[in-house]
Amino acid sequence: MRKMLKNNRLGWEILALAICLVVFLPTFMVIVNSFKDVAGAADMSISLPKAWNIVDNYKTVYREANIPRAYWNTSVVTVLSVIGVVLFCSTSAYVIQRRDDRFIRVLRYVLLAGMILPLTIIPTFILFHKVHLTGNYWGVILLYIASSYPFITYVYSGFFDGISKEIDEAAAMDGAKGAGLFLRVIFPLLMPINATAVIISFMSFWNDFGTAIYFLSSPKLQTLGLTIYFFFGVHSSDWNYVFADLVLISLPVILLYVLLQRYIVSGLTSGAVKS
Amino acid sequence: MSKLTRQNYPYYLLLPGLLVFLCFFAYPSVSGFYYAFVNWDGLQIRGFTGWENFRNLIDRDDFGLVFYNTFLFTFVTTFCKIVLGLLLAVLANMTLKSARLLRSVLFMPVMLSYVAVGLVFSAIYDPDNGLLNQLLAWAGLGGWTQSWLTNEHLVMYSISAVEIWKTAGFCMMLFLAGLQTIPNEWYEAAKIDGAGAMGRFRYITLPALRPVLQINVILTLISGLKVFDLVYTMTGGGPAGASEIISTVIYDSFAKGYYGEGTAANLLLFVIILIVIALTHKLITKRGEGV
Amino acid sequence: MNRKLLKIVTFVTMICLILALAACGSNKGNNGGNAQPSNSSESAETPAPSASQEPMKLTIIGHGSNFTTGWEAVLADAKTKGFEIQVEKLPEGSQGDDIVKTRLATKELPDILLNYSGQANIMGNGNPDELYVDLSNQAWVQNLNLDTWGSSFAYQGKVVGAPFQGSQVMAMFYNKKVFESAGVNVPTTYEEFLATCDAIAKAGKTPVFLPGKDPWTLQFSTLFSTAQKDSTEIAGKLNQNQMKFAEYQDFKAGLDVLKEIVDKGYGSKDPFAHGYDDAEKALANGDAAMFMMGAWFMTDIVKKYPDKVNDIGAFAMPIPGGKTPTVAVSPSVALYAMKGTKNQTSAEKFIEYFESIDTQNIFFGAEGGIPEITGVSKLTLTPAEMEAKAIVDAGNGFVNYQGSGLNYAGGDFPSLSADIVGGKKTPQQVLEAMDKEFVKQAKIKNDPNFK
């Protein structure tokens, strides 16, 4: 197998690179168009800019979209929500997947429906308003956690399948119980899935627009996803600013992914499925 | 139920998250469905209308087309995303030097917003100046150039391709995580028993990936049926309604001020997805052991 | 187990308490979702020895794209006059409208709402008498011609909206160089118009650019044809259910023109492939001869193709039937002072200030547009806009069917226009669709005229 792979390796490498190139092209377009001026960006081609406008574009976006504040707001909301999601969903999935009584079985279906349930924003907003959860971070954080809960829990429970119950029993026999068992034994084994959950939820909260626009639209509370729409005009838009804004918004998510990628790949080599 | 189970899997670990979910999401959204049955303009309710909102939806001339488009998009993207995601995961799992690059580049589209993607691909698909037609012409395949987004027979496929480009990397990532959990010893043992590459794939890889496959299928089905941002940014439902899907109909109703009708459409979509997922769940679960 | 459980319960309870406290605490100064500094409510009311020293604070909510160069200039001046204004920008289109509706529903009102004008919009958010302050007694109202703009800014005789940005003129814009090279002049009758299209098509250029990707651009032939003196009267009849769209001859004329342009090949080759941006480029670069649009697009031309600005002119598009060609004028968006907010007095003062001739001069000196307020002297207009304005000044500019008098929007006219371009509907079918939707919308509002 190793020999065969070595011979074919070049072929695979080339294939991989070719795929990378094709897939990367549109992303490249976003980046390169953020360097152009208004007329150039409106063309949206892959050509390099005729008029290099990087500094001006990014400076304007930085100023008008109030990037530092937007970064801060988005970070606070996203990080807190992600922590909440990982905490609540891993523990819930643990119980749901392992325990098997009637309540849990019904709950599984409720959560499945919960994944599909659409957010009807106006009644939700009115409800949140009544309990003073609008106009601040907490309403949004709770809503983000609550709306991602079914999906992420589902993802976690899927992976719990791969962790043999025998581990729980072994640890229990050593005297570990309940939350302690979970925190000390199970949670560390979940690292790849934790990384996955972090990336998924981080991404969706970071880029969110539909919820943030209702709860966080005042200038002090604005998040990054909202800033794009400043550069959309009634009839036509300043695409170079839009793209520059998009690049600024996407950078942290990409960085996070590059960092966490390692955890997913390093896998469970010292892992759970030792029998 | 054994005392062991109750001790190890106590409810108090489950309750906080569940409560947050129920209070702050499930309850408001479900109670919002009430508006599907009244005459609501976003501010006031002017009377109970029963099923009238739903009847108005079904009366639309393009009702059949809307359904067709939505389901076409869903099945095409799901099939392609799963197959491509799996193949790419296998490729990325090999110890190639470019593996890390592959993983990063393929996942980048997932992280871009739909607005960016919609804008860029609209430009790529442009019949005169767009990249795609230009590349085809340059490669001597000039006869293959099309009006990708304005040909009513092609438009849904063109949009599906963009969705696949954007999210196949996500499926790949999930499959990859799943592949990582398969211990090498299993493959070694199979090789010793004389299994070839295909055999190993069928009898070790695929079964081990069942839970991931299930998640992937369900997720892609749901996102396919719910798709909105991409279609809206690229065609707005055009040309002349050829790419209308259920979500654009919902958006349309709300935009015209028919909030009750929009909510009814939303409820309808919810029920449809529920049915599709229930069927899928039964299908996949029957073959395996269960969630 | 008991100890552990206790620990966890305490921990969770503590977190909940902290969250609750934080939520309530941070809301004390955040009443209304507008992050105003926490002592704003006190300082506005305290009487001060000289009113100009005390800052007048107010919040404005509106669609983001309205706040451009003109606004920036006024904002700078307003600061010196003691106004402290916080602007909250909304996204375009129905998303922004939804947010406005939600704010109204939860009574989180701004001091000033910047929104569309016209009867349908004034009434669309609830009872205008309850929502908006009556501005009729402010000084600037004397400078507003209520015959032309009454239906845009007033409700039952009370002026509730103050004009913001200029009125828009919609006309047929053309590239003078293309006309020259094709050897044609500005047409004054419909037959001449068809001949002009023909000559341009033979010269290898697109006669009338139709950016079908943005369907709203396809409405203009009808917006021109219904821009007649009696359009407000007809709107009234439609409102009273005394007339149907199917009987609206001027409306049908506009649809017929659009259909003829497409059928005879005088439109774009692949209309749905190109949008508004492409249209601007084509007209500026001379690939297209004519473009039906509103004068606002000249602002983009100034930005993107400054050396081509003088190549573009405007004329009134002739329609079949022999009536004098007209251009359509539409009112701008409006500032509404919301009743009952903390800073209502400041809001009213600001509107007085904004509509004064001095401030209007600042605004229009920095941004193009034709003011609704008469007496504004500083204007920055491109040649095309001047030509359009000349037509209006000559008495041939009118509000069209969408202008301001209709109570309901009727059908989705951009989409219906797209159906004509795509060959999916005939003009008669479009008229029927307009009627169907109009009746539906009236019935939803329990309009007594439509039972």
UniProtKB/TrEMBL annotation, chain A:
Signal peptide coordinates? none
Pfam families recorded: BPD_transp_1
Q: Reply yes or no: does the keyword Membrane apply.
A: yes
Looking at the record's lineage, which domain of life comes first?
Bacteria
- Residues in ABC transmembrane type-1 domain copies: 71-260
A GO CC term attached to the entry = plasma membrane
Q: What is its main location?
A: membrane
- Enumerate the UniProt keywords alphabetically: Cell membrane, Membrane, Transmembrane, Transmembrane helix, Transport
Where in or outside the cell it occurs: the entry states: Cell membrane
Name the membrane topology term.
Answer: Multi-pass membrane protein
User: Where are the bilayer-spanning segments?
Assistant: 12-35, 70-94, 106-128, 140-160, 181-206, 212-232, 239-260
- Give the GO terms filed under biological process for this record: transmembrane transport
UniProt-listed CDD domains: TM_PBP2 (cd06261)
What family is this protein classified in? Belongs to the binding-protein-dependent transport system permease family.
Write down what this protein is called: Carbohydrate ABC transporter permease
Q: Which organism is it from?
A: Cohnella endophytica
From TrEMBL, chain B:
Q: What is its main location?
A: membrane
Q: Name one GO biological process term.
A: transmembrane transport
InterPro entries documented for this protein: ABC_transporter_permease (IPR051393), MetI-like (IPR000515), MetI-like_sf (IPR035906)
User: One Gene Ontology cellular component annotation?
Assistant: plasma membrane
**Parts of the chain that traverse the membrane:** 12-37, 66-92, 104-125, 154-177, 208-228, 264-284
Q: Which PROSITE patterns match?
A: ABC_TM1 (PS50928)
Give start and end of each ABC transmembrane type-1 domain.
Answer: 67-280
Protein localization: Cell membrane
The entry's keywords: Cell membrane, Membrane, Transmembrane, Transmembrane helix, Transport
Looking at the record's lineage, which domain of life comes first? Bacteria
Cross-referenced Pfam families, in alphabetical order? BPD_transp_1 (PF00528)
- Matches recorded under PANTHER family: ABC TRANSPORTER PERMEASE PROTEIN, INNER MEMBRANE ABC TRANSPORTER PERMEASE PROTEIN YCJO
Q: Know the name of this protein?
A: Sugar ABC transporter permease
TrEMBL record, chain C:
Alphabetical list of InterPro entries matching this protein: Bact_solute-bd_prot1, SBP
**Keyword annotations for this protein?**
Cell membrane, Lipoprotein, Membrane, Palmitate, Signal
Segment Disordered: which positions? 31-53
Q: Which residues form the signal peptide?
A: 1-22
Coiled coil ranges: none
Does this UniProt record's set of keywords contain ATP-binding? no
Taxonomically, the superkingdom here is Bacteria
Keyword Acetylation appears in the UniProt entry: no
Extent of Low complexity compositional bias: 37-53
This chain's protein is named: Carbohydrate ABC transporter substrate-binding protein
This chain's source organism reads: Cohnella endophytica
